[in-house]
Design goal:
The protein is of the alpha/beta class and 311 residues long. The chain has a single domain, classed as Rossmann fold (3-Layer(aba) Sandwich). Helix content is 31%, strand content 22%. It is built from 8 helices and 9 strands. It has a 5-stranded mixed barrel with strand order 5-8-7-6-9. Strand 7, helix 5 and strand 8 form a beta-alpha-beta unit. The protein starts with 7 loop residues before the first helix and ends with a helix. Bound molecules: 1-O-phosphono-alpha-D-ribofuranose and guanine. Guanine binds next to strand 5, strand 8 and strand 9.
Length: 311
């Protein structure tokens, strides 16, 4: 889909007709990662609009992702108007990159200025155990470096969009400061919220041990199959962005490979070597941890939103 063909006017018109006036101009957006759609339960006065009603939106086909936009209010008093994407699109589902980031561009056109993106991710760093929330400080986009998978490829959206977007400031220092202040206010343990670098891979396969080792050597702390296209589009739209990754599993990186050669030799010599079962990651494991930690993530996101200055 060339940028020019994006149906913004139609999508925005549908939303205008579906939403009451006080929810029509959200200032803050949330993207809910795998198993994290319950983040929207922090909102009140909620109006949910299914993606199927929205021109230009795809359908999220991944278990643990709903397929709707939830509009609502958060925080004391009249509340802050917020929109949450309950479910995202991943390139591995077969969606075009322009579809993957279309909701982000719609959020920007509704008036969203600050975006909180969440995801489930595998840990590459022994210091980031399962259950840790990681405030992403930087990223490595492997598909962008290895092939034409950058969502900003193609004709520019307009003269006001930079052709060459800098990314040294992609992850908002202002929002990350708020995240750590929010964690403090919530009384979270020091290791509940950490900092690290996210590696984006295309998926849908999980990493081989050698790939895990490679990503770790490249400076990444966590790895996932989403988020970075959204960050790039959001930055191109001029939004402040924070990414919060929930560590749902360790990427399997054994210190050394099992030597099948040695095992067979030992077996033939009548001295078989006992081996622990092979570890493998599953999406069910990812969803289970998401479920267990959804409340902490929800409280953190809600507190950050309350602390974002309203202008
Ligand atoms: O990044 P989110 O959408 O949270 O989901 C993560 O979990 C799925 C794999 O279990 C992949 O889609 C990966 O990116
Ligand atoms: N690529 C990748 N994505 C994930 N999402 C959740 N866990 C993982 C993981 O281990 N690897």
């Amino acid at each position: 889909m060339a940028h020019q063909a994006l149906p913004f006017a139609i999508t925005l018109d549908i939303l205008k007709r579906r939403l009451p006036a006080h929810l029509q101009e959200p200032k803050i957006g949330i993207v809910c990662g795998s198993g994290l759609s319950t983040l929207a339960s922090a909102l009140r006065d909620v109006v949910e609009v299914p993606y199927s009603e929205l021109e230009g939106f795809g359908t999220s086909t991944v278990q643990g992702h709903k397929s709707s936009l939830a509009f609502g209010l958060l925080g004391p008093g009249n509340g802050i108007p917020v929109v949450a994407m309950l479910g995202r699109f991943h390139p591995y589902e077969g969606h075009k990159l322009s579809t993957v980031v279309y909701p982000i561009r719609v959020l920007a056109r509704l008036g969203v200025r600050n975006l909180i993106i969440t995801n489930a991710a595998g840990s590459l760093n022994p210091k980031l155990p399962v259950g840790t929330i990681v405030a992403i400080q930087d990223h490595v986009a492997i598909p962008n470096m290895a092939g034409p998978l950058n969502p900003l490829l193609g004709p520019s959206l307009g003269p006001e969009y930079p052709r060459f977007l800098p990314l040294s400031n992609a992850h908002s220092i202002k929002l990350r400061r708020l995240a750590f202040l929010a964690a403090h206010k919530l009384g979270l343990a020091d290791d509940a919220l950490a900092e690290g670098v996210y590696a984006w891979v295309s998926g849908p396969t999980y990493e081989t041990p050698a790939e895990g080792r490679f990503l770790r050597a490249a400076g990444a702390d966590v790895v996932g199959m989403s988020t970075i296209p959204e960050v790039l589009a959001a930055r191109e739209e001029g939004l402040e962005v924070i990414v919060l990754s929930l560590v749902t599993n360790f990427v399997v990186i054994p210190d050394k490979y099992r030597s099948i050669k040695e095992e067979v030799k030992a077996e033939l010599a009548g001295k078989p070597i006992e081996q622990p079962p092979q570890q493998v990651v599953s999406h069910q494991e990812v969803l289970n941890v998401g479920k267990q930690k959804a409340d902490v993530m929800k409280d953190l996101v809600a507190k950050i939103i309350e602390m974002i200055p309203t202008d």
